Every structure is written in structure tokens, then in C-alpha cells.
Amino acid sequence: MAAVTLYTTRFCPYCVRAKHLLDRKGVAYREIAVDGDAELRREMMERSGRHTVPQIWIGARHVGGCDDLYELERRGELDAALRAAVNAGESETHKHNEDQ
Ligand SMILES: N[C@@H](CCC(=O)N[C@@H](CS)C(=O)NCC(=O)O)C(=O)O
Q1: Does residue 92 surpass a pLDDT of 80?
Q2: Angle at which helices 78-99 and 13-25 pack, to 10 degrees?
Q3: What is the DSSP letter of 61?
Q4: The Cα angle at residue 36 between residues 35 and 41, in degrees rounded to 5
Q5: Residue to substitute in 52, 63, 71 for testing ligand 1 pocket (most ligand atoms within 8 angstroms of CB)
Q6: Among residues 19, 22, 56, 87, which one has the fewest Cβ atoms lying within 10 Å of its Cβ?
């Protein structure tokens, strides 16, 4: 599982900006494009309670949109949140491998 999941549309400047920050952090993310897909957009709205893109999760934690992601960065909390999600993902993989 990627540490970050975000719902996006293609021509959305906020999505581009959010991905730019995640790219700069070097973190892998799973992008769910909701362009023209009413079902995926509904899924995003149900999970987030919001209707704008992007909607971003770090691990299981719903961060919100692009502004919320940058606010985490401004508060100096983004790196730790990303690290925790990456580490949690790695230990899940490790556990999964041990189970086999
Ligand atoms: N403050 C929000 C603004 C997001 C926003 O306005 N996104 C636009 C697309 S760029 C949007 O979803 N508009 C409404 C819609 O497409 O239904 C954020 O930082 O994510």
C-alpha cells in the first residue's frame, strides 16, 4: 500500500501543486483519477465528506485538500506524518511476508 493516496482530476491546479510537494518529498503515492467517473467521485465524497479535488490521505489519516497538505508542511508536521505512514506500510509488508 502506498503511504499516500489522493483523488485527483487531470486539469486541477491544486492537484498538480499537491503532487509537486509529494514528489519533492520523494514519497510514493497512489493516485485515483476521478475524471468523468461518477462512482469514484462518489467514493471520494463518502470517504472524505468533501467534494473538491484533491482529497489526500497519509496512511489512514485524511489530510484534506492541497491547502491542508501545505499547511501540514508549514507547521513542520508533514515529514513526520509521511515517515510514519511509510514505516507503517513497511511493517505491514514485513508482517505479511512473515505470515507466508
Ligand atoms: N482549497 C482546496 C481547493 C480545491 C479546489 O477548489 N479544487 C477544484 C478543482 S482545481 C474543485 O474541486 N472544484 C470543484 C469541483 O470540481 O467539483 C484545496 O486546497 O484542495
Answers
A1: no
A2: 70
A3: E
A4: 70
A5: 52
A6: 87
pLDDT at 19: 98
Is residue 13 lining ligand 1, measured as CB closer than 6 Å? yes
- As a whole number of angstroms, the distance between CA 11 and CA 26 comes to 23
What distance in angstroms lies between residue 51's CA and the mean position of ligand 1's atoms?
8
Rounded-to-integer distance, Cα 59 and Cα 68, Å? 15
Which residues neighbour 10 within 8 Å (Cβ) at sequence distance 6 or greater?
A: 33, 35
95 or 60, higher pLDDT:
60
- Would you give the distance in Å from CA 43 to the centre of its chain? 15
In which residue are the cell numbers 465528506 written?
49
Per residue in 2-58, pLDDT tens?
899 999 999 999 999 999 999 999 999 999 999 999 999 999 999 999 999 999 999
C-alpha cell at 42: 462518489
The answer to whether 91 and 9 are in contact (CB under 8 A) is: no
